[in-house]
Design a protein that fits this description.
Length: 305
Amino acid sequence: MADSKRFLFVLLCGAMLIGCGNTVDSGLPPENDTITETDFDLNKYMNKTWIMDEENSGKSYSNYLSFVINKNENGMLQGKFSICEILENNSELYTDTNSVGTLAGSVQNGVLDCQLEWEEEGFSGNLQLKNRSDDKIEAVLNVDKKNGDDMPESGTYLFRPYKLKDSEEKRYSYADTVDTIELDGWGAVKFISRVRSGGKHNILEIYLTSMENDILYNFTYLGNYPHNVCVKEYSFEDLDNDGLKDLILILTGNEEGEGESMARVYYQKNNGGFKNDKKLFVALNGGKHSYNQSVKSVVEYIRTK
């Protein structure tokens, strides 16, 4: 019996020593070390247009760089960037166009490390983003290749979100609509429509913004809206049963909402973009404006197809 107890004691001590040995740092990174909330809050960076901040003293704004991160799959981030102009988040980001560069990366040790590539413009580099505050991030840009002096140079820059006030012009506006909604994949956002006087014609502008008025999505360029129209009625509903709410717009030719109207439908895609259904537009409007278009009539038409 004594020998058995001695054997069990030795066995237990060996197991304890092995367990303690496993606590020694093996030099390998722990699993799932790619992203941690304490190091980097990705939600603050998604879908927003990030532009160079005014505090970049001594930096040439002809070498401007802006970017959008619009996709996150298991910690692998994707987005687009542009040079010498503001890149606003809209459906053009999701086409096979070569008019913008690509961004791809992941979070490593509290730093968002991104590769930039724009083959058509002869530009490539690396962009490392670090938290600085809720509305600013510090970025270190290392340029591997650039074609021309109008490309940004290597250096440390500050970036901030592109806000609604940045896009405003000192012109009279009417029919402004501001509504807060819960949108799948976006959280709480503002839906904003407004009409701006643009010389001889009035121009319709439609946005999704954060609660702090950071522009998240710009519908302005998606519909080729006729001049002098405003939003009469709108609704976000899941029209194609994919779990994502789609936008229905009823437009009218005057701010009182009377007279002719037309309907437009923008289906939300699983990559965060919206797509204007041109065939549906023709079917709903019959190739011309109508006097009885409404959100209800659009939903009924689609549901019965």
